[in-house]
Amino acid sequence: MALILNEEQKLLKESVKDFFDSKAKISALRKIRDEGKDLYDEYLWKEMCEMGLTGLIIPENYGGLNFGYVALGQVLELIGRNLVISPLISTSLMSTTVINTIGNENKKKQFLEKIALGEITVSFAYQEKSNFDPYFINTIAKSDGDNYIINGEKFYVLDANISDYIIALVKIENGSLGCCIINSNAEGLKTEKTEFMDTRNRGNIEFNNVSVSKENFIEIKLEDLDKIYNIISIGISSEMLGISIEAFERTIQYLKEREQFGVPIGSFQALQHRAAKMFIEIELSRSVVFKALKAIDDNSQNLSELASLCKSKLGRTVKLVTNEAIQMHGGIGMTDDIDIGLFLKRARVAQQSLGDYNYHLNRYADISGY
Predict the structure, then answer these.
(1) pTM reported for the whole predicted model
(2) Where do the domains of the chain lie, and which CATH numbers do they carry?
(3) Can you say whether residue 143 is alpha, beta or left, with left for phi > 0 and alpha for psi between -120 and 50 degrees?
(4) What b/e sequence results for 140-173 when a residue is b if at least 16 CB atoms lie within 10 Å of its CB, and e otherwise?
(5) Dihedrals phi, psi of 213, to nearest 5 degrees
(6) pLDDT for 267-309, tens place per residue?
(7) Residue 111 and residue 182: Cα distance in Å, rounded?
């Protein structure tokens, strides 16, 4: 397996990098945070949709580009580097993956075409505990004629407060699992915004006798649910790679500029050793992420193993790099005067999403037979 991008993927990454560097500066995150709004930059999102970023993993017959997950991973890496706040992760990574994996022809045509055009945003609601527990599902869907009546709660749903639709993971009366696609304005559906240190939009959702047509229910097998979790974990790892790279490069630049005792602090051997360790870990992480993304596109049989390897490795790398970045910036790194602390805040939340380092290390060991 060649761990290199093809020409189309390189061109995509270069064009998105130029776009984000000019239109998605970190000052935009500060503006959203300081104004205290639930929203993202709608003009930026519109341009992202026009560039086709919402359709990268959507088949061409549903209006997408069908570029695959390697291509989407490059965009997610750049989102990590620029700390872009947008519905891309919730809609184009999470929800599109769910519909691609388990959706029937009608549901794919109904939703994927609108996602590709940027006409709708969708959130995937799966978590019901404070920590990630993939099979803990107490949200119940009871049959009522042509509908299901849903009761339960979901926690920390990404973009729940701004999405047009919610894909809720539920359990039906016979114990089977499924996903209900619900309009966010449905009667009995209540969303409460939650505050996280990374300024992203999240909400807890309460379902109180929410009625959903059985046409909008899709049964899901455990192996398909595992596949969805694997893919999303790899996507989040791509973002963590971007966070690590940007935090590292900003730190190296600071080591070159900051002087102590009349010389740049980057000339101190102790800091050089620490920087070298970060560089090595980032380069290893690049390979792990690329291999995992390629495994998705190739429908590899060892996707679960690679997903947990990827998420555990990137969880450790991004923690190391963001911690060291703060340390090497010194006192000013602890303040809000410069941006380096924003990378640590996003990293801490991303580390916990769909299982932290310890969860995935244990899962990797189980899969590998240890």
Answers:
(1) 0.96
(2) 7-120 (1.10.540.10), 124-220 (2.40.110.10), 222-368 (1.20.140.10)
(3) beta
(4) ebeeeeebbbbbbebbbbbbbbbbebbbbbbbbe
(5) -60, 140
(6) 999 999 999 999 999 999 999 999 999 999 999 999 999 999 9
(7) 12
